[in-house]
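Shipment paperwork, digital attachment
Item: protein structure file
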Amino acid sequence: MENINIDIKQFLDQDQKKDLLRLLTAGSVDDGKSTLIGRLMFDSKMLYEDQLAALETDSKRMGHAGAIIEGGVGSAEDKITALQNAGVQVARYPDDIPSLIKAIAAK
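Attachment content:
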């Protein structure tokens, strides 16, 4: 595993100035990660009416939020590819998480 030396106070101070919240979730396929994120967004009232309407339409067409692949079927690899195509950065292995966080924090 890669050692990363970060001044955590400086990182947190800098992070407080951002107007974007980044969340990190970990777990197996269908552990409810997307449900958690969706619920946090809904409860925080950070979704606009048009976004909610689009989600409602997509949900009726595709089923529950975990059904990323058309028809609700697909391998984990299919779901990872769909997430990456949507702009989500995915760590393939736990050992990849520190370098992924470091890259995101540098933005």
